[in-house]
Design goal:
There is one protein chain. The protein contains 22 helices and no strands. The C terminus is likely disordered. Helix 4 packs antiparallel against helix 9, helix 6 runs antiparallel to helix 7 and helix 13 packs parallel to helix 15. The chain has 3 domains: 185 residues, no CATH class; 128 residues; 106 residues, no CATH class. The chain is 65% helix and 0% strand.
Amino acid sequence: MDPDLSNPGWLDALVGEALARHDEAAARARLPQELASSSGHPDLAPGAQLLVARSLRVRRLGPGDPGPGAAFLRAVRGHLQLLLDLALLAGVPFQPDRHRGTIAACLAAAVGEPDLALDADPARPDPAWPLSVERALTAAGRALKLRGLPPGDPLHGLPLYPGSLSVFRRHLARVAMGAFRGGALDPESLARHRGYAQRELTLLVEAVAGLMAWSGQPYSPEAPSVRTRQLLRLGLPRAEAREARRAILTPRPPVELAAAAAPHVREFLLEQLLLAQLRLKLEGPQASAYLQAFQEGAGLAPPAVAAARVEAAAQHDDTLAWFEATAGAQDWQALAREWEATGDQLVEQVAGAVTQNWEALRLQLRETGELGQLLTQAAAGKALDADEKRRVRAHLIDLAKAVPALAIFAAPGGMLLLPVLAKLLPFNLLPSAWDRVGRKAGEATPIPAPPPGGPLPPRG
């Protein structure tokens, strides 16, 4: 039963539920194979990065809106699952009371309550420790509700929710790595992690605001007040909030923005821009030009761009639409089981295949142009008939010959995974403003002129 969100102790109850249900053997089996055999390794960063990425991917299949409360709790359970997986990866023995304290400390730190986090840290013995843990969970629960309930983005707002969730999870993982390495939480490290997250959020706001401005998205009279409220939900300090408000009104050109971001943040921003493009269905040349300019300004190599596109597609909840166009009702349960069981492995398999075989995959898709046409029809909602499905499977076999890592899609039963393949391919299957046939590698896309008065004229 879900906890009552009106109760100040709702997060404490949720943590208790997660600890009571925790099965270490099952959790270890759920870890990626390459991580399960290396738990306890002193360098947690690569494993933490993979676990954060997995936690953000959409696995839901089927219609229906769970409602804001249920969706919010699902996101918070994702935070808790990430922390428990990181503890396992670090080789920390499962001790419910100690884990509860560490979870409380990490969550409090990630919502900007460092003093409460330090008090709750089990590595800092204190006679009042149990009360400190309770206080940290209460404060973290209050902040999580203010920032994440209801989940998602409001009408007339910016597409910030997936990016802010990603920033929070990565912030949480950085704090947890310090906690699970065996030492006490360090105030200076907590301040540094908080600064990283605040900077990422500020750049995220500017990036998506710039994309929407350049793509000519309608700007309603309600937009300024809605977007101001969105910024309040991010929990930014006053200086960063002022910078974010300025960025919404006059975002920098994409090349300048990319140059201002640290190298490790550029891939994150591109991933979020691609995800925003999918969510808002921005298919015009303006949006494509903005993305191309950002990519080139960031100096990202094709494999990095491919990986960003795969992750953006994996976080975009459109699998059901693909399924309805390419599979029959009798396949629904089989597809659901397959996706739930292998979704992360498929994402990582496709990501590895496209980053390691970029040119071969691109060439093969161009040569088998009918595959792109058929998948484009499915994307437009046209159900494929039996003959079209047969031709798709034949093309998948050819694709697997060129890129053996994708052979899973051409195997018996592979048609059930066609929605996943169509969703995860990290580039347009037909010529577009983003990926023109015959374009020379590295050739820049001209950026159309911005709207009159600058990238985004002041409103109101």
